[in-house]
């Protein structure tokens, strides 16, 4: 997983910035994304795609690759997401930025919350 950090303050809280000019639009086709740090407000360009990860799904908002799934009873899909689900896409969710989306590529990493482990299991009576 490749995370994007701000080059000035090192923060992981980045968002998309508006594209200015033809050069930035052309660069976005090749993975160069224009981002802005939410903490220090710095605008910078970073390449967020790695060739080794092209076959895995990633969050459309924060580009993380550790994803979970979502259920239809908690989220009603509409529009483009419903269209993709109709043709066999997987239900994917990024727990960091809480985005539900559909994708045809498999998830590279499954995010799991830490669950408490029962230290003293009770014996089962027969």
Summed up:
The protein is of the alpha+beta class.
Report what the structure shows:
With 126 residues, the protein is an alpha+beta fold. The protein folds into two domains: 10-48; 56-113, no CATH class. 12% of the residues lie in helices and 22% in strands. It is built from two helices and seven strands; from the N terminus they run βαβββαβββ. It has a three-stranded antiparallel beta sheet. The chain has a two-stranded parallel sheet with strand order 4-7. A hairpin with a 5-residue loop joins strand 2 and strand 3 (43-47). 11% of the residues are buried. The model has no long low-confidence stretch (mean pLDDT 78).
Keywords:
126 residues, alpha+beta, three-stranded antiparallel β-sheet, globular
Distance between the termini: 47 Å
Task: Name the shape in a single word.
Answer: globular
Structure class: alpha+beta
The strand count comes to: 7
Strand portion: 15-25%
Quote the average pLDDT.
78
Number of separate helices: 2
Largest sheet: 3 strands, antiparallel
- Global Rg: 19 Å
**SSE string, helix = H, strand = E?**
EHEEEHEEE
Q: What is the quaternary state of this protein? A: single chain
Helix % is 10-25%
The largest beta-sheet arranges its strands as: 1-2-3
């Amino acid at each position: 997983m490749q995370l994007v950090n701000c080059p000035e303050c090192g923060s992981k809280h980045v968002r998309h910035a508006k594209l200015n000019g033809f050069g930035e639009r052309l660069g976005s086709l090749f993975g160069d994304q224009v981002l802005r740090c939410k903490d220090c407000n710095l605008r910078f360009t970073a390449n967020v795609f790695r060739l080794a990860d092209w076959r895995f799904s990633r969050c459309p908002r924060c580009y993380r690759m550790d994803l979970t799934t979502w259920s239809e009873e908690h989220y009603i899909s509409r529009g483009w997401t419903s269209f993709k689900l109709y043709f066999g896409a997987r239900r994917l969710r990024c727990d960091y930025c809480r985005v539900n989306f559909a994708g045809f590529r498999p998830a590279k990493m499954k995010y799991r919350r830490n669950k408490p482990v029962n230290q003293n299991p009770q014996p089962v009576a027969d």
